[in-house]
Design goal:
single chain, 451 residues, six-stranded mixed sheet, 4 helices, 5% helix, 45% strand, globular
């Protein structure tokens, strides 16, 4: 169901709680209009941070679309520099992927661009620029894209948490988004944490209710370990349902990664907490305030699997992809400036932030073939490795027991080897990179060509 403002207000007192996203007033030719522009927001009391935001808010508006229905989104660039929008995790047509130089020309300041695509998969996804990413994401240009199931799955509440840190001076202005030292290591960690744009977050949940909680790590750098101080189940990762949900204990969430939880709320009022688990210590991310409610009975929710093509593993072509630390500052330009290069894929770095000078693809795949990427993180830091335009199947790891599952991002721990499989069923040039944004910007980026 697509909700306008009046319908959202009418549902405000409903027992079935959801975050409403506002659509343009009919008869707009677009499902949504997103305007990227400088926007002052308050992150530290008494100060204003010169953010860049979509539609004047952080996080950007939550866009809700229906599985297998076409969507048209007008993006207006009112920034002082070019931008694009990438629809993270969506298996869409290559022309709508939002990568400058690879799939489209950048949207110039004052320019507009219409993205048209259909989402074959239901789940929790997000959107962000793919140009000058360290600064544009660092300033706040991120938002959720929720694809609702073709046949709705009912919960008593459907809630979201957007996790992001900020690098700020005490007066609310931005500190440097990156440094060579940080980019060559884990990345620049923010000093001001927010959940849904606030230092603290409390959500109301109905007593005895079944709650779907979508958690998205939209930070440039930080790794979260999601837990709770009450029982819950992991039902989907990176927008893809698990064939069998698993109990929530400690779920690692690297940059750009998402997890959907099913929470059975106790009958008695009280307070529960969603946690970030760091070693022996738990840090609250969000407080859940249990409120009295008369709830209609609901069947146990079961998310339908997304239509991912089955792998033909006996005939799969294997492609090794090695992620390494180069540890150099190169090359040097004629005026003496250095372009930091710290990371490589198969001994090659891609650091052209404009994407206007394309290297050769990391691999060339034939349409319809099955491929297994043999990933090796030969570094001392974790890397959330993301592939555009595809959902892959995680098959094996030398550091953990794997029950095969679908995802668009795999969090590789230091020195980890893992195998992931895809069916090359979506033609085009598709980015393949680490989603620690500073790692991507200093070499850990390439693309796969499917023809």
């Amino acid at each position: 169901m697509n909700l306008n403002r009046r319908q959202c207000l009418q549902l405000g007192g409903s027992l079935l709680l959801t975050h409403c996203a506002l659509r343009p007033v009919s008869p707009s030719p677009y499902d949504y209009v997103l305007t990227a522009a400088p926007t002052g927001i308050s992150l530290i009391p008494g100060t204003t941070t010169p953010a860049w935001a979509y539609n004047g808010q952080f996080p950007g508006p939550t866009l809700r679309v229906r599985q297998n229905r076409p969507v048209r989104i007008l993006v207006e660039n009112r920034l002082p520099e070019p931008t694009t929008v990438h629809w993270h995790g969506i298996r869409l047509n290559n022309a709508a992927d939002g990568v400058p130089g690879l799939t489209q020309e950048p949207i110039p300041p004052g320019g507009d661009f219409v993205y048209e695509f259909t989402c074959p998969d239901a789940g929790t996804f997000w959107y962000h620029p793919h140009i000058n990413s360290v600064e544009q994401l660092g300033r706040g240009l991120v938002g959720l894209l929720i694809v609702e199931e073709e046949q709705p799955v009912q919960f008593h509440a459907d809630l979201s948490l957007v996790l992001k840190d900020w690098t700020l001076h005490p007066d609310g202005s931005f500190a440097p988004f990156t440094s060579h030292r940080a980019a060559a290591r884990v990345g620049t960690l923010g000093n001001h944490a927010t959940v849904n744009g606030s230092p603290t977050q409390t959500l109301a949940v109905p007593a005895g209710g079944r709650v779907r909680l979508r958690i998205a790590n939209l930070d440039n750098t930080r790794l979260f370990n999601i837990g709770a101080d009450f029982p819950g189940r992991v039902i989907a990762v990176e927008g893809n349902p698990l064939a069998e949900p698993v109990p929530l204990t400690r779920h690692p969430l690297g940059s750009g990664m998402r997890v959907d939880l099913e929470l059975q709320i106790p009958e008695q009022p009280g307070k529960l907490h969603i946690l970030d688990r760091k070693g022996r210590f738990d840090f609250p991310l969000c407080e859940l305030n249990i409120t009295h409610a008369k709830l209609p009975p609901l069947p146990a929710p079961r998310l339908p699997m997304n239509p991912i093509a089955p792998l033909d593993l006996p005939n799969a072509v294997r492609i090794p992809l090695v992620f390494e630390w180069e540890g150099a500052l190169s090359p040097t330009t004629a005026d003496g400036q250095v372009d930091p290069v710290f990371w490589t894929i198969n001994k090659r770095a891609w650091t052209d932030h404009s994407h206007m000078h394309l290297p050769e693809p990391l691999a060339k795949l034939k349409l319809g073939g099955t491929y297994v990427f043999e990933l090796y993180n030969a570094t001392q830091h974790h890397h959330p490795i993301h592939l555009h335009g595809y959902t892959f199947t995680v098959l094996w790891s030398d550091q953990r027991t794997i029950t095969p599952y679908h995802t668009d991002t795999i969090l590789l721990e230091k020195n980890e080897r893992a195998h992931v499989g895809i069916v090359a069923d979506n033609p085009g040039d598709w980015m393949f990179h680490c989603h620690v944004i500073e790692h991507m910007a200093t070499g850990l980026m390439g693309y796969i060509r499917v023809t």
